[in-house]
Design a protein that fits this description.
Blueprint: E1 29-38, E2 41-51, E3 56-60, H1 67-75, E4 82-87, E5 90-93, E6 106-110, H2 121-126, H3 133-146, H4 162-174, E7 180-184, H5 192-209, E8 212-217, H6 220-226, E9 229-234, E10 237-242, H7 244-249, H8 254-260, E11 264-271, E12 274-277, E13 280-283, E14 292-297, E15 302-306, E16 323-332, E17 336-343, E18 349-355, E19 365-370, E20 376-379
Parallel strand pairs: 3-8, 3-9, 6-7, 7-8
Antiparallel strand pairs: 1-2, 1-4, 4-5, 9-10, 11-12, 11-14, 12-13, 14-20, 15-19, 16-17, 16-19, 17-18
Helix pairs in contact: 3-4, 4-5
This protein binds adenosine-5'-triphosphate (ATP) and magnesium ion (MG).
Protein name: Fe(3+) ions import ATP-binding protein FbpC
GO cellular component, one term: ATP-binding cassette (ABC) transporter complex
Organism: Ruegeria atlantica
Length: about 375
Amino acid sequence: MLSPPKPDGIDRERQRGPSVTENATPPRLEIRNLIARYEGRVVVDDVSLTVRAGQVTCLLGPSGCGKSTTLRMIAGVEMQESGEIYVDGKLICDTVFRVPPERREIGLMFQDFALFPHLSVADNVAFGLKGHRDEKRARVEALLRKVDLMRFVDDYPHHLSGGEQQRVALARALAPRPRIMLMDEPFSGLDNRLRDGIRDETLAILKEEDAAVVLVTHEPEEAMRMADEIALMRRGKVVQQGAPYNVFTRPADKAAVAFFSDINVLSSKVNGALAETPFGQFLAPGVPDNTDVEIVFRPQHVRLDFDRNGKGPLPTPTDGVAARGVVERARFLGNESLVEFRMDHDGSILRATVPNVFVPSPGRVMWLTIRRDRCFVFPV
Ligand SMILES: Nc1ncnc2c1ncn2[C@@H]1O[C@H](COP(=O)(O)OP(=O)(O)OP(=O)(O)O)[C@@H](O)[C@H]1O
Ligand SMILES: [Mg+2]
């Protein structure tokens, strides 16, 4: 059982200037209190982030929450209304001073990564490179080897598959050794089966190149897979920030739980720091009496037991009290099965997932318990 958690990093003390302590290396990228507004509406609302070299931070959130706008301000193609951007501890942009986009040493990669169709693979990768011909050629070949495309060096983009073109785009963005890589849903145009492999390869290459990466995605699995840190955004704000494990296991609110998976919700009222439910009591430390609360848990944390002569399992401290439900619907989803129950106590539906195949018939009676250490209690 957990009390409402305090989101990581939200309460950080605000200060002016980059967050550098003496003798410490400043973060590669730091944005402070960025605000953007379109037609009077705030679309990025006081967003702050730090990203170290070699680290991937994912901006994760639903459509329209301000992810791309944040990225465009870092790139310098959009001006913030207020806030500052620092690279390696140096101010590159505030409301009066602004380093132009082409001098920010930033690599960009977007969903429609548009290679130049009239240039060969090698010339596409070399496009942003300066310097001697031999040096450029060496860098291009090194990168094409990294993305495993040397065999296409003199081919044109239309000879390549979507996944191969994506890797050329990655090589092109990395060629000038950017200090920061900004990636806006770069994998969303790819076939599902290709995507996992390309994500992993891309991640390995980004780590080797030691850039600070900001990756925008609306897919929780992608963020969990790629990120060192996730910044969960909603309506222009970062609502929670932290390592994927922390964001998943200590969510800031109900919507943060729901963003990563299906959820079940029980309603209750607090009395003496306890919330009474048909599944027994849940601890609600620090929550005043008479506060309405919701107890939120994921379907994989529901335990199922068979009915034994009208009885379920005995109560335990870790799983609480069992409540009786009747199978409404069960489906096999591949790696797991999803079973929906109509609960006896109030007729509500609760969902449980079970590994592998478990497809009981509708009408079957079962007993449900909930793992206490996987529940979240939020005041309403
Ligand atoms: N040039 C613009 N003019 C007016 N409104 C804009 C402009 N660009 C973005 N917006 C609005 O700002 C909000 C944030 O847009 P943004 O593109 O940053 O969202 P997003 O999180 O990247 O969404 P998606 O996942 O759909 O790409 C949206 O409501 C969008 O309609
Ligand atoms: Mg976007």
